[in-house]
Amino acid sequence: MESGNAVTASNKRDISGKTIVIKIGGSTLGEGDSTVPDIVDLWTQGARPVVVHGGGKVISDWVAKQGIQPEFIRGLRRTDEATLDVAVAVLGGLVNSQLVAEFQAAGASAVGISGVSGGLLQAEVLDPDLGFVGKIVKANATPVEAVLNSGSIPVIAPTALHLYPSESGEDRILNVNADTSAGHIAKAVRADQLVFQTNVEGVLDARRRLIPRMTRGQAVDLIAGGIAVGGMIPKIEACADAVTVVGSGHIIDGRVAGALLVCARGEDIGTKII
Fold it and tell me: Span 185-206, mean pLDDT?
């Protein structure tokens, strides 16, 4: 695999102008991680990267620091008002600002926004029992396009506008899944690629072998058959939904330096969903 520094001039032209939505784990970036340098390389070569970040682990750490006891409903974490306040502060403040600072330090222009900015993500309550957890019903590409057209990298925190608060004064922000957010944003901006940076090689079959390519239907069957589990499910679902509009969806190993560049050039890496 070529590193980011080994990309040839012809390959640089290949990715120029491509809009690539990249979901990264906000809590996994650290010393030696190649995600930020790879995204900066895409940007310097003329691509239009859009970054959507998570931050679940950081939220959990800060919830614990605040002494908030987690509550689970049918195995799912409930987001009460106090937890929502922490999530919004951590995602839109701490994690987002740290990532923007990393991009700036690496020589790129980056602008931090959230799903609330300009009504980018709009949602309704997924399940009243789960509190302020949202189901995205609409995405507005305008704020993302504005940042892209200014020549900067949008760095997006996954929160959403609460479209239908049940009572006056109820919080107008909902917590939404970062993987799902990335899929909706990719559709809204009609991206060429949707890429999930993960800590595994890609999607694996029942015998733990990499599945290099899947159709949308095969991706849905993989979930229905119980082969895809846990955090891989929303990533596959987001890709399967997005490829109705987006050129292709990809799940790759973000720990490998240059993997994102290889994916952007259309070479085989990880799992591609079409």
Answer: 95
